[in-house]
Amino acid sequence: MSHFALQSNKVILNTSHNNQVSHEMLAACIEVKDELIVAIHPYGQALDCEVLDYGDRVIMPGLVDSHVHINEPGRTEWEGFNTATQAAAAGGITALVDMPLNCIPVTTTKAAFEEKLNAVDDKLWVDCGFWGGVIPQNIGDLDELLNAGVLGVKSFLIDSGIEEFPNVEAKDIRAAMPILAKHDVPYLIHAEIDCGGFNDVVINDKYNSFLASRPKSWENEAISLMLDMARESKEKGDNCRVHIVHLSSDEGLESIATAKKEGLRFTAETCPHYLTIASENIPDGKTLFKCCPPIRENSNREHLWQAISDGRLDFIVSDHSPCTPELKHIDSGDIEKAWGGISALQFGLPLIWTEAKERGFTLVDLTRLMSSETAKFAGLDSIKGQISVGFHADFLVFDPEHSYTITNEMIKHRHNITPYAGRTVTGQVQHTFVRGHHVYQQDEFINAPVGRPLLKGRL
């Protein structure tokens, strides 16, 4: 259908009052033509096209997930664009941004990026942008990489676990920042620094032994370093955008709050696993829960929710980081050897909604935290992240009352493993539309992949 409309008693629309843009849930009818939203009418409006009526179910802007590891080309036995973007569609995600590792080659050069773009042909069920990487060896290539269309770049301050993606130090950050500021793209930082003193911790099948091996101080020190780097960049007149990915430590929130108060361009995200799981509840030997930085105590989790509420944390993304079951060492329970990463791409919205509604958050709040703010961060907010005339017709239809238990059989990503199997959640994504194409309906994928690459300067 190139011309149709969908309506509901509950549509989360972009509204403007006194020049303040916000979201509001209203009864409405959304008219779609040629992949774009062309008009928003009152509910029940008579139109000369088919109208899909979703009654009391909620029509939300498609989610934008700016932190996904897809691993193609090179490690497609871990994940690939076809299965990852199917899982995204099943989760109501209509646009995602792929990380520059753990693919082979890593996305640190224009040639590597072009190889990745060649790998996505006919595999994207949702639209997909791409982050590049900064490593010590590619500072001189950053201009070319950014001109090729990546939306920003990422670095590690600690061993990434991938030999081709070594960590950076202060001198590398200092050299990269003016280039990134010139292109006005965010600098994503995996904020852990190995401060020593914990390398003698013996990691066994006890989750707490792994937790002890990666203490909060590693995150805190890394965030403090980036605060200093951001200050220095501003003083030089660059004011580079700095972003802390997958924040786990509540002790790092103070530095983030300081950066925001000082007017630095400093943002931070967290993830469903840090907001929905507490280390006290992780069974020993369950390697599926291993990720870096680690899932921490319940009190830490509650502090992260407070930071979501007061704006110290800017948004919520999946950090979907899959691998093969063998690399997870599920049978042996060997946490030290297991690859770190949580697989849960399609379950983010129900996981967060289940916890958030108990804390007074609304679906309008989640639209901001999982769609409009992530679109803005990735530079996609001229086309994604809101239901407004002229924007892409990206929607999800959500039943906020439906409760169910997550099972391995539901999983759409490549390997049907997740630490959330057996967990009961509330809220079900029933339909997903990408640029007006109905791609997912009641656990089934429709037609063929319609997603396309989202390149900076060519949206």
TrEMBL record:
A GO MF term: allantoinase activity
SUPFAM superfamilies xrefs: Composite domain of metallo-dependent hydrolases, Metallo-dependent hydrolases
EC number: 3.5.2.5
InterPro entries: Allantoinase, Amidohydro-rel, DHOase/Allantoinase_Hydrolase, Dihydroorotase_CS, DNase_TatD-rel_CS, Metal-dep_hydrolase_composite, Metal_Hydrolase
Amidohydrolase-related domain span: 58-437
Entry keywords, A to Z: Hydrolase, Metal-binding, Zinc
Cofactor list: Zn(2+)
UniProt xrefs under PROSITE patterns: DIHYDROOROTASE_1, TATD_1
Involved pathway(s): Nitrogen metabolism; (S)-allantoin degradation; allantoate from (S)-allantoin: step 1/1
Assembly with partners or alone: Homotetramer.
Role this protein plays: Catalyzes the reversible cyclization of carbamoyl aspartate to dihydroorotate.
Family from the record: Belongs to the metallo-dependent hydrolases superfamily. DHOase family. Class I DHOase subfamily.
PANTHER family: ALLANTOINASE
Name used for this protein in its record: allantoinase
Protein species of origin: Shewanella eurypsychrophilus
Taxonomic lineage from the root: Bacteria, Pseudomonadati, Pseudomonadota, Gammaproteobacteria, Alteromonadales
Gene name linked to the record: allB
